[in-house]
Amino acid sequence: MSTRHSNLFRQTAVSQMVAHSHLTIALAVVIVVCLFSRTPFSAASKPERASIIPRPVSIRQRQGHFTITSSTQVVAKKEATAEALKLIDALAPSMGFRLQLAARSKAQDNIIKLELDPQLPQIGDEGYTLKVTRENILIRARRPAGLFYGIQTLRQLLPPSIFRKAKVEGVTWKVPGVEITDYPRFKWRGLLVDPARHFIPKSALLRFIDTMSLHKLNSLQIHLTDDQGWRIEIKKYPKLTDIGARRDETLIGHLSKRPWLFDGRRHGGFYTQDDIREIVRYASDRHINIVPEIEMPGHARAAISSYPHLGVFPEKQRSLKPWTHWGVSGDIFAPRPTTIAFLQDVLSEVIQLFPSNYIHIGGDEAVKNQWKASEEIQAVIREKGLKNEEELQSWFTRQMDTFLSKHGRRLVGWDEILQGGLAPGAIVMSWRGEQGGITAANAGHDVVMAPTSHTYFDYYQGPAEKEPLAIGGYLPLRKVYHYDPVPAAIAPEKTRHVLGVQGQLWGEYISTPRHLEYMAYPRAAALAEVGWSPKRSKEYEDFLIRLRHHIGRLRAIGICYRPAESEK
Ligand code: TNX
After folding, report:
1. What is the pLDDT of residues 132-171, one digit of tens each?
2. How many CA atoms lie within 13 A of 515 on its CB side?
3. 95 burial class (0-12, 13-18, 19+ CB within 10 angstroms)?
4. I need a surface site. Which of 200, 216, 351, 369 has the fewest CB within 10 A?
5. What element of type H or E holds 515?
6. Do residues 174 and 320 both lie within one domain?
7. Is residue 483 over pLDDT 50?
8. How far is the CA of 366 from the centre of ligand 1 (A)?
9. Which ligand 1 atom lies nearest to the CA of residue 473?
10. What is the pLDDT of residue 36?
11. For residue 75, what are the domain limits?
12. What is the C-alpha to C-alpha distance for residues 202 and 270, in angstroms, rounded to an integer?
């Protein structure tokens, strides 16, 4: 219940009690229930309980609190100043003042000190310690990322209105006394967004990145190309966006529903290279790595529509257009030298733009009918001494792997890249269940767990009849929360190959930024805890209690999260 609601309740209660004494008892019961309910919005809730998401490794609550006022100083030496400025920027809008930054301070009181110490034991490159006493706040870390995460925790220790974007009157900015030691379980804590199916405006992407950073998520995969659209400017091949970034119309309703109806409206958009640079920098300022995905050899219709010579049957494909409905198109890149050169040219521009160590080349659902039907491609298979089309895809992937390795990057692909032999050094994203990840990790490959069963955020999160149209499936919050990215079938000495976990927001049925947030939250908050918090400290009931408080933060930001049944 919101403050608004509970105030209303109480006002109503006062007048009713005067007028209708027989209702007194009933109302009193309601009031008592309101006051003692655990919702963060009721007046009697205890803000002292630190509701941090994801749950820190260790947290000890202490007596007393620190109050941030306009005279509080932020103290940070040279290498820590970038993070200190982020703290100051984050607090300023709602507090209505900018804290002063100093390189050192004589006083130990009324300061928030950020300290880098590369020798700090046991917390890794992303860990931090945070100590709040009556006198001061101290955040320590080995690396700037750790300070950044300490700052995210500090923001969560403050009242939720800290997340508002204009000055909030009448709040004392109290931080409860606490001692925290914290570091992540996994180094890959990711989400995937899919602007290929429905374009996501840059502004919405930046906002999405902001919300991720609040949850200590650190990897965002952007699915930049697919049958329905090509969304990244490539200077050498302008038609990719002149033609490939727009489709004539879009299917209305679910793919499985007949007859098909279309909206008759053009849909499109793409990120210029300047946009990409901005997105990448914005994310890296928040310690988020952007992993670009360029799909191959399948999901290639928008690219082949732009440059038909890349297809298996160029003559027939001359009139091809970006797809207007969902599913997997049969249009697949032809494994010719010209195509390989084209894709490597594309990747050259991609690696110029994205500093990411990891470059995703898709590899999923490559329908091979066109390869099978083509004399030319069958001859390629024979010439190369390959057994079949699976091995040809594997050969294709290797061309990209060699290219990326030469440029010091690592190839990532969906688990189909395992079929027909996996390029050495490649990373497998396990989506068709966990088996791909298990096989790959046991064979010594790094893997990211992204199974449909627990991480497909395009699936329904409640009963389908009460939810907006989704692709299908059922993935409630509870199930996401209970996911363990290290399946028992991975040998103990191989579990280090599990880099982490990723949630997928495929875009077929997610057509607006608002809906994107609805599908992402609160499930991404649960995923953040899967990726960050120690397995032993995971407790769903406890998460739900913290989530109630956390929802207050999402509300203050204005995130269009999906409300829980009890909230509706
Ligand atoms: C499968 S997951 C796909 C996507 C779809 C998604 C819909 C994967 C690697 N491929 O192209 O958008 O299912 O849930």
Report:
1. 999 999 999 999 999 999 999 999 999 999 999 999 999 9
2. 19
3. buried
4. 369
5. helix 513-520
6. no
7. yes
8. 12
9. 14
10. 39
11. 58-182
12. 9
Of all residues in the chain, the percent with pLDDT exceeding 90 is: 89
Q: Is 185 within 8 Å of 253 (Cβ atoms)?
A: no
**248, two tokens:** 């004539």
| Ligand 1 nearest atom to the CA of residue 362, by list position | 9
Contact in structure between 520 and 550 (CB atoms under 8 Å): no
Q: How far is the CA of 506 from the centre of ligand 1 (A)?
A: 7
Instruction: Give nearest CA residue, ligand 1 atom 10.
Output: 364
CA neighbor of 237 nearest in space, from 106, 367, 347: 347
Query: In angstroms, what CA-CA distances link 132 with 92, 155, 157, 275?
Result: 20, 13, 10, 39
Residue nearest to atom 6 of ligand 1 (CA): 506
H/E run at residue 178: strand 173-182
Would residue 369 count as lying in a domain?
Answer: yes
pLDDT digit string (tens) for 425-451?
Answer: 899 999 999 999 999 999 999 999 999
Residue nearest atom 12 of ligand 1, based on CA coordinates: 506
The catalytic residue positions are 226, 299, 365
Please indicate, yes or no, whether residues 263 and 137 belong to a single structural domain of this protein: no
Q: Is the pLDDT of residue 3 over 80?
A: no
Question: How many domains does one find in the chain?
Answer: 2
The pLDDT tens digits for 290-328 are: 999 999 999 999 999 999 999 999 999 999 999 999 999
- Strands, E, within 235-321: which ranges? 246-247, 251-252, 261-262, 267-268, 289-296
Question: What digits encode the pLDDT tens for the residues 162-175?
Answer: 999 999 999 999 99
Q: Which residues contact 418 (CB under 8 A, 6 or more apart)?
A: 428, 436, 439, 440
Structure tokens at 217: 């998520």
Is 51 inside any structural domain? no
Domain identity same for 12 and 84: no
Task: Choose one of 222, 296, 393, 506 to mutate for the ligand 1 pocket test, by most ligand atoms within 8 angstroms of C-beta.
Answer: 506
Rg (CA), the chain: 26
Indicate the length of the chain as a whole number. 568
